[in-house]
Amino acid sequence: MNSSLHPGPASLANSEPPFIRRLLLAVALIFLTLFLFVPLAAVFYEALRKGVGVYLAAITDPYALDAIRLTLLSAAIAVPLNVIFGVSAAWAIAKFEFYGKSMLITLIDLPFAVSPVIAGLIYVLLFGAQGWLGPWLTGHGIKIIFAVPGIVLATVFVTVPFIARELIPLMQAQGTEEEEAAMVLGASGWLTFWRITLPNIKWGLLYGVVLCTARAMGEFGAVSVVSGHIRGLTNTLPLHVEILYNEYQFAATFACASLLTLLALVMLALKALIERHTLRQRRIAISGESI
Protein backbone atom coordinates (compact mmCIF):
# COMPACT_ATOMS: atom_id res chain seq x y z
CA MET A 1 0.00 0.00 0.00
CA ASN A 2 1.29 3.43 -0.89
CA SER A 3 2.26 5.27 2.28
CA SER A 4 1.60 8.60 0.61
CA LEU A 5 -2.11 7.80 0.66
CA HIS A 6 -1.96 7.43 4.45
CA PRO A 7 0.23 10.18 5.86
CA GLY A 8 1.64 9.60 9.33
CA PRO A 9 1.24 11.83 12.39
CA ALA A 10 4.36 13.85 11.54
CA SER A 11 3.14 14.71 8.05
CA LEU A 12 -0.33 15.55 9.38
CA ALA A 13 1.21 17.90 11.92
CA ASN A 14 3.35 19.58 9.28
CA SER A 15 0.29 20.12 7.09
CA GLU A 16 -1.31 22.40 9.68
CA PRO A 17 -1.11 26.16 8.96
CA PRO A 18 1.87 27.83 10.65
CA PHE A 19 -0.32 30.09 12.78
CA ILE A 20 -2.01 27.01 14.31
CA ARG A 21 1.34 25.60 15.37
CA ARG A 22 2.41 28.95 16.77
CA LEU A 23 -0.90 29.31 18.62
CA LEU A 24 -0.60 25.89 20.22
CA LEU A 25 3.00 26.56 21.19
CA ALA A 26 2.05 29.93 22.68
CA VAL A 27 -0.76 28.38 24.73
CA ALA A 28 1.60 25.71 26.06
CA LEU A 29 4.28 28.27 26.97
CA ILE A 30 1.78 30.59 28.66
CA PHE A 31 0.37 27.71 30.68
CA LEU A 32 3.84 26.53 31.75
CA THR A 33 4.89 30.07 32.61
CA LEU A 34 1.86 30.76 34.80
CA PHE A 35 1.61 27.41 36.55
CA LEU A 36 5.21 26.18 36.60
CA PHE A 37 7.96 28.71 35.93
CA VAL A 38 6.51 31.62 37.93
CA PRO A 39 5.79 29.51 41.06
CA LEU A 40 9.26 27.95 40.88
CA ALA A 41 10.88 31.35 40.56
CA ALA A 42 8.74 32.67 43.43
CA VAL A 43 9.92 29.88 45.73
CA PHE A 44 13.60 30.67 45.19
CA TYR A 45 13.02 34.42 45.26
CA GLU A 46 11.22 34.27 48.61
CA ALA A 47 13.79 31.83 49.98
CA LEU A 48 16.67 34.20 49.24
CA ARG A 49 14.87 37.52 49.65
CA LYS A 50 16.25 38.14 53.14
CA GLY A 51 19.76 37.10 52.24
CA VAL A 52 21.91 34.01 52.02
CA GLY A 53 22.58 34.09 55.76
CA VAL A 54 18.90 33.72 56.63
CA TYR A 55 18.56 31.00 54.01
CA LEU A 56 21.46 28.96 55.38
CA ALA A 57 20.26 29.45 58.95
CA ALA A 58 16.85 28.06 57.98
CA ILE A 59 18.10 24.93 56.25
CA THR A 60 20.75 24.21 58.92
CA ASP A 61 18.34 24.63 61.82
CA PRO A 62 18.42 21.44 63.96
CA TYR A 63 14.73 20.75 63.33
CA ALA A 64 15.23 21.21 59.58
CA LEU A 65 18.21 18.85 59.60
CA ASP A 66 16.19 16.26 61.55
CA ALA A 67 13.39 16.58 58.98
CA ILE A 68 15.84 16.16 56.10
CA ARG A 69 17.40 13.08 57.71
CA LEU A 70 13.99 11.50 58.32
CA THR A 71 12.90 12.24 54.75
CA LEU A 72 16.03 10.60 53.36
CA LEU A 73 15.71 7.66 55.76
CA SER A 74 12.09 6.94 54.86
CA ALA A 75 12.90 7.13 51.15
CA ALA A 76 16.00 4.95 51.60
CA ILE A 77 13.83 2.23 53.16
CA ALA A 78 10.70 2.60 51.05
CA VAL A 79 12.35 2.70 47.61
CA PRO A 80 14.34 -0.59 47.94
CA LEU A 81 11.22 -2.32 49.30
CA ASN A 82 9.28 -1.09 46.29
CA VAL A 83 12.08 -2.23 43.97
CA ILE A 84 11.80 -5.76 45.37
CA PHE A 85 8.01 -5.74 45.17
CA GLY A 86 7.85 -4.02 41.78
CA VAL A 87 10.31 -6.35 40.07
CA SER A 88 8.70 -9.45 41.62
CA ALA A 89 5.16 -8.38 40.76
CA ALA A 90 6.06 -7.30 37.22
CA TRP A 91 7.97 -10.54 36.61
CA ALA A 92 5.04 -12.64 37.84
CA ILE A 93 2.44 -10.68 35.86
CA ALA A 94 4.42 -10.47 32.61
CA LYS A 95 6.00 -13.92 32.54
CA PHE A 96 3.41 -16.23 34.13
CA GLU A 97 -0.29 -16.99 34.05
CA PHE A 98 -1.95 -17.57 37.44
CA TYR A 99 -5.28 -17.25 39.20
CA GLY A 100 -5.85 -13.75 40.60
CA LYS A 101 -3.56 -11.99 38.12
CA SER A 102 -6.10 -9.26 37.34
CA MET A 103 -6.72 -8.78 41.06
CA LEU A 104 -3.00 -8.25 41.66
CA ILE A 105 -2.87 -5.61 38.91
CA THR A 106 -5.87 -3.86 40.48
CA LEU A 107 -4.26 -3.90 43.93
CA ILE A 108 -1.08 -2.38 42.52
CA ASP A 109 -3.14 0.54 41.21
CA LEU A 110 -5.03 0.97 44.50
CA PRO A 111 -2.80 3.78 45.88
CA PHE A 112 -3.67 5.84 42.78
CA ALA A 113 -7.37 5.58 43.65
CA VAL A 114 -7.20 5.98 47.44
CA SER A 115 -6.47 9.35 49.01
CA PRO A 116 -3.14 9.38 50.91
CA VAL A 117 -5.01 10.72 53.94
CA ILE A 118 -7.29 7.68 53.87
CA ALA A 119 -4.22 5.43 53.67
CA GLY A 120 -2.81 7.12 56.77
CA LEU A 121 -6.10 6.66 58.62
CA ILE A 122 -6.08 2.96 57.72
CA TYR A 123 -2.69 2.56 59.40
CA VAL A 124 -3.94 4.45 62.46
CA LEU A 125 -6.93 2.11 62.59
CA LEU A 126 -4.64 -0.92 62.42
CA PHE A 127 -1.65 0.12 64.53
CA GLY A 128 -2.84 3.07 66.64
CA ALA A 129 -3.17 2.85 70.42
CA GLN A 130 -6.92 2.23 70.05
CA GLY A 131 -6.57 0.28 66.79
CA TRP A 132 -7.02 -3.39 66.07
CA LEU A 133 -3.40 -4.31 66.79
CA GLY A 134 -2.60 -1.33 69.03
CA PRO A 135 -2.99 -3.01 72.45
CA TRP A 136 -0.84 -5.99 71.41
CA LEU A 137 1.85 -3.72 69.98
CA THR A 138 1.83 -1.54 73.11
CA GLY A 139 2.10 -4.62 75.33
CA HIS A 140 5.22 -5.72 73.42
CA GLY A 141 6.81 -2.27 73.38
CA ILE A 142 6.39 -1.81 69.62
CA LYS A 143 5.49 1.68 68.38
CA ILE A 144 4.43 2.17 64.78
CA ILE A 145 2.10 5.17 64.72
CA PHE A 146 3.77 8.50 65.62
CA ALA A 147 7.11 6.84 64.94
CA VAL A 148 9.45 6.10 62.04
CA PRO A 149 7.89 2.69 61.16
CA GLY A 150 4.51 4.31 60.52
CA ILE A 151 6.08 6.94 58.28
CA VAL A 152 7.88 4.24 56.29
CA LEU A 153 4.70 2.17 55.95
CA ALA A 154 2.73 5.18 54.72
CA THR A 155 5.50 6.08 52.26
CA VAL A 156 5.65 2.52 50.94
CA PHE A 157 1.89 2.46 50.41
CA VAL A 158 1.71 5.63 48.32
CA THR A 159 4.73 4.65 46.20
CA VAL A 160 3.80 1.02 45.48
CA PRO A 161 2.60 1.49 41.87
CA PHE A 162 5.51 3.47 40.42
CA ILE A 163 8.12 0.77 39.80
CA ALA A 164 5.70 -2.08 39.07
CA ARG A 165 3.73 0.05 36.62
CA GLU A 166 6.90 0.96 34.70
CA LEU A 167 8.08 -2.64 34.45
CA ILE A 168 4.88 -4.54 33.68
CA PRO A 169 4.33 -3.22 30.11
CA LEU A 170 8.08 -3.34 29.44
CA MET A 171 8.34 -7.01 30.43
CA GLN A 172 5.15 -7.88 28.56
CA ALA A 173 6.53 -6.30 25.38
CA GLN A 174 9.81 -8.21 25.71
CA GLY A 175 8.06 -11.56 26.00
CA THR A 176 9.59 -14.73 27.43
CA GLU A 177 11.64 -16.08 24.52
CA GLU A 178 15.06 -15.07 25.87
CA GLU A 179 14.36 -16.44 29.36
CA GLU A 180 13.04 -19.69 27.90
CA ALA A 181 16.13 -20.05 25.72
CA ALA A 182 18.40 -19.52 28.73
CA MET A 183 16.48 -22.11 30.74
CA VAL A 184 16.73 -24.62 27.87
CA LEU A 185 20.50 -24.08 27.81
CA GLY A 186 20.66 -24.98 31.48
CA ALA A 187 20.64 -21.62 33.26
CA SER A 188 18.97 -21.49 36.64
CA GLY A 189 16.10 -19.12 37.33
CA TRP A 190 18.31 -16.82 39.39
CA LEU A 191 21.05 -16.75 36.74
CA THR A 192 18.45 -16.09 34.05
CA PHE A 193 17.14 -13.14 36.01
CA TRP A 194 20.59 -11.58 36.51
CA ARG A 195 21.92 -12.22 32.99
CA ILE A 196 18.77 -11.83 30.85
CA THR A 197 15.83 -10.19 32.62
CA LEU A 198 17.60 -7.49 34.65
CA PRO A 199 19.75 -6.11 31.80
CA ASN A 200 16.63 -5.87 29.63
CA ILE A 201 14.67 -3.88 32.20
CA LYS A 202 17.43 -1.81 33.82
CA TRP A 203 16.46 1.51 32.24
CA GLY A 204 12.78 1.04 32.98
CA LEU A 205 13.72 0.08 36.52
CA LEU A 206 15.85 3.22 36.93
CA TYR A 207 13.00 5.32 35.57
CA GLY A 208 10.62 3.80 38.12
CA VAL A 209 13.15 4.33 40.94
CA VAL A 210 13.45 8.01 40.07
CA LEU A 211 9.67 8.48 40.13
CA CYS A 212 9.36 6.44 43.33
CA THR A 213 12.09 8.44 45.08
CA ALA A 214 10.58 11.78 44.14
CA ARG A 215 7.14 10.67 45.37
CA ALA A 216 8.55 9.24 48.60
CA MET A 217 10.42 12.41 49.53
CA GLY A 218 7.50 14.69 48.70
CA GLU A 219 4.71 12.69 50.35
CA PHE A 220 2.58 14.75 52.71
CA GLY A 221 -0.96 13.43 53.28
CA ALA A 222 -0.40 9.88 54.54
CA VAL A 223 2.74 10.81 56.47
CA SER A 224 0.96 13.74 58.10
CA VAL A 225 -1.68 11.43 59.55
CA VAL A 226 0.70 8.84 61.02
CA SER A 227 3.55 11.13 62.10
CA GLY A 228 2.03 13.06 64.98
CA HIS A 229 4.03 16.15 63.92
CA ILE A 230 6.65 15.66 66.64
CA ARG A 231 9.46 18.11 65.92
CA GLY A 232 12.85 16.53 65.70
CA LEU A 233 11.37 13.01 65.69
CA THR A 234 8.57 12.42 63.18
CA ASN A 235 8.51 15.51 60.99
CA THR A 236 9.61 14.96 57.40
CA LEU A 237 10.64 17.93 55.29
CA PRO A 238 7.14 18.56 53.80
CA LEU A 239 5.65 18.51 57.31
CA HIS A 240 8.38 20.83 58.56
CA VAL A 241 7.51 23.28 55.78
CA GLU A 242 3.86 23.23 56.86
CA ILE A 243 4.74 23.92 60.50
CA LEU A 244 6.99 26.83 59.56
CA TYR A 245 4.25 28.30 57.39
CA ASN A 246 1.67 28.00 60.18
CA GLU A 247 4.10 29.83 62.47
CA TYR A 248 4.46 32.66 59.91
CA GLN A 249 8.17 31.98 59.44
CA PHE A 250 7.93 32.65 55.74
CA ALA A 251 11.63 32.99 54.97
CA ALA A 252 12.37 29.64 56.61
CA THR A 253 9.30 28.13 54.94
CA PHE A 254 10.45 29.02 51.44
CA ALA A 255 14.05 28.08 52.24
CA CYS A 256 13.03 24.55 53.19
CA ALA A 257 10.54 24.43 50.32
CA SER A 258 13.37 25.31 47.95
CA LEU A 259 15.14 22.09 48.99
CA LEU A 260 12.12 20.08 47.91
CA THR A 261 11.98 22.10 44.69
CA LEU A 262 15.64 21.38 43.98
CA LEU A 263 14.98 17.71 44.63
CA ALA A 264 12.10 17.77 42.15
CA LEU A 265 14.29 19.45 39.53
CA VAL A 266 17.07 16.88 40.04
CA MET A 267 14.56 14.03 39.71
CA LEU A 268 13.16 15.67 36.57
CA ALA A 269 16.64 15.94 35.05
CA LEU A 270 17.36 12.27 35.83
CA LYS A 271 14.00 11.31 34.35
CA ALA A 272 14.80 13.21 31.15
CA LEU A 273 18.23 11.57 30.86
CA ILE A 274 16.78 8.11 31.31
CA GLU A 275 14.02 8.81 28.77
CA ARG A 276 16.59 10.02 26.25
CA HIS A 277 18.78 6.96 26.76
CA THR A 278 15.78 4.63 26.53
CA LEU A 279 14.65 6.29 23.30
CA ARG A 280 18.15 5.96 21.86
CA GLN A 281 18.27 2.27 22.78
CA ARG A 282 14.86 1.75 21.21
CA ARG A 283 15.94 3.41 17.97
CA ILE A 284 19.06 1.26 17.85
CA ALA A 285 16.97 -1.86 18.36
CA ILE A 286 14.49 -0.84 15.65
CA SER A 287 17.27 -0.04 13.18
CA GLY A 288 18.87 -3.40 13.91
CA GLU A 289 15.57 -5.20 13.30
CA SER A 290 15.01 -3.33 10.02
CA ILE A 291 18.45 -4.39 8.81
Report on this model:
It is a single chain. The chain has about 290 residues and is mainly α. The chain is built from 13 helices and no strands. Helix 4 packs antiparallel against helix 10 and helix 8 crosses helix 10. The mean pLDDT is about 85.
Provide a compact summary of the structure:
With 291 residues, the chain is mainly alpha-helical.
Radius of gyration based on Cα positions: 24 Å
Name the helicity range: over 70%
Tell me the overall shape.
Answer: globular
Poorly predicted segments: none
Overall mean confidence score, pLDDT: 87
CA distance, first residue to last residue:
21 Å
Largest sheet: none
Proportion of β residues? under 5%
**Tally of helical segments:** 13
Content-based structural category = mainly alpha
**Number of extended strands:** 0
Element pattern in H and E: HHHHHHHHHHHHH
